[in-house]
Amino acid sequence: MLAFGVTVNAVAQFLGPTSSAKSEYARSTRPPFAPPSWLFGVAWPINNLLTLWGNREVLNAPPSPDRTAYLQLQAATWALYATYGLARFRLRSPILGYANTAMFLALAGPSAVRAARIDRKLLASYATLGPWLVLATILSVYQLGDPDPLFGG
Q1: Do the Cβ atoms of 90 and 21 come closer than 8 Å?
Q2: DSSP notation for 30-80
Q3: Per the domain annotation, does 70 fall within a domain?
């Protein structure tokens, strides 16, 4: 599980924002309640550690339809996590950033339901991720009005 987490985070860093994209993000539209940028660097490692713990627990659970569905949902959410930086920052697309974040949130709900069916304690792996994804999705909605060179805006 550790190797998987390191690999996905390495891919996310490789595909992530350049220094110019970071400064562009600093100028983007954000609501007054937006957390400071540095907080993202604190929140995501916590989210990822809790998610990896949940993934390990599910991998060690007996095979079941819920386990299979959970693992499929997790594969999709990890792919979204790894490609967010590419979508939002490298491609400079608020639209793709929103789509990525909204899909992640939409998949996290059914994933949490499947996890709870396997073992209710696994809901703890969503303790920070769920609220953070709600906030991130709201922030992404605010940024939809920013220029999007990928889609001609």
Answers
A1: yes
A2: --TTPPPHHHHHHHHHHHHHHHHHHHHHHHTSPP-HHHHHHHHHHHHHHHH
A3: yes
Number of independent structural domains in the chain: 1
Q: Minimal CA–CA distance to 76: which of 102, 43, 103, 114?
A: 103
Q: What pTM, to 2 d.p., does this model score? A: 0.90
Q: What is the pLDDT tens value at each position of the chain, 153 positions in all?
A: 778 878 887 887 777 776 766 677 777 778 888 998 889 889 999 999 999 999 999 999 999 999 999 999 999 999 999 999 999 988 989 999 999 999 999 999 999 999 999 999 999 999 999 999 999 999 999 999 899 999 987
Distance from C-alpha of 68 to C-alpha of 100, rounded to nearest angstrom: 23
Residue 2 lies in a domain: no
Question: What single DSSP character describes residue 91?
Answer: S
The domain in which residue 99 lies consists of: 39-151
